[in-house]
Amino acid sequence: MTQGMNNLLGLREMSPESIVEVLDTARSFREVLERPIKKVPTLQGTTVVNLFFESSTRTRISFELAERRLSADVVSFAASGSSVSKGETLKDTARNIEAMKTDVVVIRHSSTGAPHFLSRLLKSPVINAGDGINEHPTQGLLDMYTMREKFGELKGLNVCIVGDIVHSRVARSNIFGLTKLGANVAVCGPKTLIPDYLDQFGVKTFFDIDEAIGWADVLNVLRIQLEREAGGNFPSIREYRLYWGINIHRLERAKRPLVIMHPGPINRGVELDADVADGNTSLILDQVTNGVAVRMAVLFLTGAKSS
User: Fold this and answer.
1) Which of 43, 164, 226, 291 could form a disulfide with 142 if both were Cys (CB 3.0 to 4.6 A apart)?
2) Helix axes 137-151, 16-32, angle to 10 degrees
3) Do 131 and 92 share a domain, yes or no?
């Protein structure tokens, strides 16, 4: 990428120029997805290996589609049933795969820093598809692309991220990326789910969802991550829905229509009601489509340089 950046490890490390380069490149690939033949020979002869050590459906399928749309050769690896389940280390797994002459590595891992570790070991470019509770950079990029597509630019846009901030790698990537491009970012949720260091990034904090709705142009609503013990940070799901859930009645009191986003999967009836998720101001399905285009851009900008 710009300035010799061959990996995508996180938006915290990326320059504003590199972020804009990805978003601009994604616009071209978004047009490809509207064609009758949704395939280009851009990465023909390039082998991409997907290392998914953590369960994923949406991100894995999106990456695989992006790779095939670019005509890359795709190898998908899941930890279950592999040598990892027999005790093989991440280091040995990666080096064995690279010895098979792969060109780009996409990794999703439950351990924070796993992509950074791989990038120091491998000659191939490494793309982070989500690591622990650190970052999910391609999700952050596709969220930014979707907002820019809707509003024209990000500078001055009021974006509030709602929900389980402390466990969310999506929140971190959104915060790093949006603030670099001039958006005003806020978070909202229970005090127990909001880390206390966000003010150093210029992030505003709301604890009242109605106050946040009155401020925001965009609500990016996060899933309550019960598998990461988020449920222990508030008394009950019922109480969370009562105080922080996004429903049509709350939105009707807003000064203007709010754009609704969600990285998925949605806990319908908890953080987001069904009529809001499926409503006219929801960009959730646009995010899914744009995710393929953004990942095509990232693969192109890394894979083309490695070939």
Assistant:
1) 291
2) 70
3) yes
197 and 100 share one domain: no
Answer yes or no: do 37 and 96 share one domain: yes
The closest alpha carbon to 258, from 220, 219, 206, belongs to: 219
- Neighbour tally for 57: CB within 10 Å: 9
pTM of the entire predicted model: 0.93
Q: Which residues pair with 30 in a beta bridge?
A: none
The residue type at 207:
F
Under 8 Å between Cβ of 162 and 222:
yes
- For 56, the token pair is 């994923």
Based on the domain organization, do 127 and 148 belong to the same domain? no
Residues 14 and 130 in one domain: yes
Count, residues in the chain? 307
38 alpha carbon, distance to own chain's centre: 23
Nearest Cα neighbor of 62 from 291, 241, 307, 278 is 291
pLDDT in tens, 184-211: 999 999 999 999 889 899 999 999 999 9
Provide the token pair at 129.
């598809």
Report how far residue 172's alpha carbon sits from residue 190's, in angstroms, rounded to the nearest whole number. 17
**What are the Cα distances from residue 8, in Å, to 110, 136, 147, 168?**
17, 10, 21, 18
- The verdict on 80 and 176 lying in the same domain is no
Quickly count: other Cβ atoms within 10 Å of residue 305's Cβ: 14
Residue numbers of the domain that contains 111: 2-135+288-306
pLDDT in tens, 106-129: 999 999 999 999 999 999 999 999
- Quick one: which of 302, 301, 82 has its CA closest to 94? 82
